[in-house]
Design brief:
six-stranded mixed sheet, 7 helices, globular, alpha+beta, single chain
């Protein structure tokens, strides 16, 4: 199964056609977008994906930045909230949570993380994928050794969730998925799977597609799981 996690930056704007080309030309089975906006650009993305047989679900219907899931398999939408899409794919017995964590430190971000950890703990015995832009990192994944909500990321590991890039990244894959204008890199985009799901995965590889960021289709590198 080919899975994409991609922050498209401010809903795509004038880059939307290039984003759509990237999505369709790579024949992903599941697409998780962050900074998705349900506006004309967002509707263009939805329409093009639906034409190719995808089922789609955005988190936000109010024009605010959010998350979005598209999948070739039929799914049931379990819950949508601001920046949060939760689905279940019966054919695969797979639960997927797509998140766009607030970027600014403070109460809103901490509460969002609390909700993620609650979901993770309640579903730890199921086949679960949690992916998106977490706007968080540990010192290990920061170019200048700063950290953002690192304790929350580590808590996911303590609950039994596996960081797919950390354990299955291809040798040539750059870890940083976003760079500050100063040139400092950070790994902000993640794909975590529950231990139950992890043991069923064989020959999984993960890479960040830095060429997409370098070509300015977005300011984030897409994270690809194949």
């Amino acid at each position: 199964m080919r899975i994409l996690n991609f922050n498209i930056r401010f809903g795509g704007e004038k880059r939307t056609s290039k984003i759509v080309d990237y999505l369709l030309n790579n024949d992903f089975d599941m697409i998780v977008l962050t900074e998705f906006v349900k506006n004309d650009n967002g509707q263009e993305i939805i329409s093009k994906l639906v034409e190719k047989g995808y089922k789609t679900q955005p988190s936000n219907e109010n024009g605010e930045l959010g998350s979005f899931i598209a999948c070739k398999e039929t799914f049931v939408t379990k819950n949508i909230e601001d920046r949060w899409v939760e689905i279940y794919i019966p054919k695969m017995d797979l639960s997927v949570l797509g998140v766009y964590v607030p970027d600014k430190a403070g109460t809103e971000k901490n509460l969002f993380w609390k909700k993620i950890l609650k979901y993770a703990e309640e579903n730890v015995d199921r086949n679960v994928l949690i992916t998106g832009d977490f706007n968080s990192c540990t010192k290990e994944d920061s170019g200048n050794q700063t950290e953002y909500n690192a304790k929350d990321l580590l808590k996911l590991g303590e609950l039994g969730y596996i960081d797919l890039w950390k354990y299955n990244s291809t040798a040539e894959s750059m870890g940083y998925t976003w760079f500050h204008h100063s040139g400092t890199g950070f790994r902000l985009d993640y794909a975590f799977v529950s231990s139950k799901l992890a043991v069923t995965l064989e020959d999984v590889s993960v890479y960040s597609d830095s060429q997409i960021r370098e070509s300015k289709i977005s300011d984030h590198s897409p994270l690809v799981v194949i």
